[in-house]
Amino acid sequence: MSAVLRWLGHSTATLDAAGVRIVTDPVLRKGLAHLRRRPPLSPREDSAGCQLALVSHLHHDHCDLPSLRRLRADWVVAPPGAGPWLQRRLGRGPSTVVEVAVGEQRTLPLRRSVGGHVDVVVTALPAHHAGHRTLGGLDGAPPHGEAVGHLLRVPGALPGRDPDDLLLWAVGDTGEFPGDTAVLAAGGRAPDVALVPVGGWGHTLGPHHLDPRQAADLVTRVRPGLAVPVHWGTLHPVALGRTMGDRFVEPGRRFAAEVAAGGTSTAVLLRHGEVLRLDATGRVVGRAPLDGPPTV
Fold first, then answer.
1. Cβ neighbours for 206, distance < 8 A, ≥ 6 positions apart
2. What pTM does this model have?
3. Class of domain 3-288
């Protein structure tokens, strides 16, 4: 048994572990609002069959309603105050929306693809980021929104190790803040894998975001085993794709270099659609295409 992490672009990643599939901040379209996607979309099967979708906050590039409807996840974890609105927007379909507030844990019984279920624990973590929905009044979104990060504990994902659970830290979107102690307190140890935002989609990063150096500083404090940069190299404003310069390539590279300099974690720089494979002990065994070791 192994765990497989696939980066689909921006903040969207899938984790396949212990017979379940989890998707973070799903954006699975070529464009949304005023943003367009540069890299090709991953095939639908890369995100199909999802049991759990995490939504860190209500910004359109993290909470895309058409993508969530397409996923048809059994469970959707919403940020505080957004649960009833998101359930209404998704309709009476298969998805059950639950809220998890900062500092709270929720155990969700996820159906395994091989039968039975696994109890995945979701903990909401603090973030320093505006979480309200832009022009949210047009679709009835709550006027005030909170952004959170998520820590996932997947039991039995790494049966060759003690403990056998896998800890995934999906940072979501945040600026600098002293929140590293909350991550370690919630997990009882450093996460195995962290999805860390290192950039944005515009010509400037804007407030309440992490640049590559700030993201690497956070990683140095929390010390996850593996740090995967996300929230970069995917989206651009309409008609401005050609003016983005090196913003589609530099944030990830700078983050990897800064993490390497810190010496506490390993940064793995994935291409869009590429997967990171962990063996039963949590050791990196390759990535697809499996043509060499992970880019570090």
1. 200
2. 0.94
3. alpha beta
